[in-house]
Design brief:
alpha+beta, Rossmann fold, two-stranded parallel sheet, two-stranded antiparallel sheet, globular
Length: 125
């Protein structure tokens, strides 16, 4: 039988999550990292992340970005729903802008970053 603590420790060190406890996470940053670690315990082929930076301090947001980047390097598919433009541009291979449930724009991150018309029309971008 696998020991959950050993699996957690293995994934925690692989993804820079040392110090995040399996039982109690105090701050929202620790809770978010713990959520990521829990998802990784299932050994998924892909991961859906909904607003992983919501409510986090900028330093923690950068750490979350590093974890997402490492997952990409390892070949894991990540579908990221994120309001934080710098984070999503730093980790995305492709960006989609949705309006009322419909895709209104799609492009690589560098094109979205430079498209002032889309940014003006959709202020959340």
């Amino acid at each position: 039988m696998l020991h959950l603590e050993n699996i957690h420790t293995s994934y925690a060190s692989s993804y820079g999550l040392q110090g995040v406890t399996l039982h109690v996470a105090r701050g929202s940053g620790e809770q978010q990292m713990l959520s990521i670690a829990r998802a990784l315990l299932m050994n998924p082929q892909s991961l859906l992340m909904d607003e992983p930076s919501d409510g986090l301090a900028p330093l923690i947001v950068r750490e979350v970005g590093k974890v997402i980047g490492q997952l990409k390097v390892e070949g894991m598919g990540v579908l990221l729903v994120e309001q934080n433009l710098p984070l999503r541009l730093s980790v995305a291979d492709r960006c989609y802008v949705l309006n009322k449930g419909a895709t209104v724009y799609e492009a690589p991150p560098h094109e979205l970053h430079g498209n002032h018309v889309v940014k003006q029309r959709y202020p959340g971008v």
